[in-house]
Hints:
By secondary structure, the chain is of the alpha+beta class.
Amino acid sequence: MERMAALLRQLAPSEGYTLSLLDEVKFMRSNRPVARTPVLYEPCICIVVQGRKRGYLGDDVFVFDRQQYLVLSVPLPFFTETEASEEEPLLAMAIRIDRSSLADLMVAVDDRRSDAAPLGILSTPMDERLADTVLRLLQALSSPLEARVLGPGIVREICYRVLMGEQGGAMRAALTSQSHFGKIARALRRIHADYAGNLDVTMLAGEANMSVPAFHVHFKSVTQCSPIQYVKSTRLHQARLLMIRNELTASAACSQVGYESASQFSREFKRLFGRTPGEEVEFMRQSLSLRPAQLMAQPGRAG
């Protein structure tokens, strides 16, 4: 882990998010602790090589640090807090899970089944083989040539190792529409694709081929919230991104994500994030800005 941390310190020299040389990989760094904060993660594999994060979903707590990685098999809004300091910053990477690539892997491994109940989020112990693969990815991402030639194959190997591990059952179930979990995963994808549209529970339940009561029960078992709460949270997170990345006003962002009332939007935004839209945008720009990919002076070499 020390070699990984040394590489990440150079690949992510500043706080916030840093893009890598691969679209599906980004780095995260925090030089200070961060109190419990609402987040929305897309399906991803999150690997922390220094520091610690805790995720909170309902009554469940998930720790991800150098001993455990986090996998989200479906997009979920939840809360995180960060343990970090100037001397020992949080250093992490997130690998986006691509559904089509995952489906190809499932075919290649003959879709091995798991008796474990699928979960939308879970932390899992890091084993030696996965750690070695992550190290090779960080080394490859230090060089434009190696990132282009070797990077995609190493990302595929990481997904393979996760798919064949404890989290594999949830990842397979998310792609299998016949299971209850898979049907809810499909509903979540519909919400994220059309969050600004006229979404209602009856329509979502019908698309999942479930009764409304059954849909509510299974939806909450995956997300720990109701469908309406999930839609609202998704809209608010997307509005925050629009204000930060596209410099939209709160009024413009509110209408683009499906709110009809600006006052309702502002009320619900402050209830979720603890700040007004303007305050939250300023805070996020200062603390969690997105930076371009960094290159090391000597690719692939770290102590």
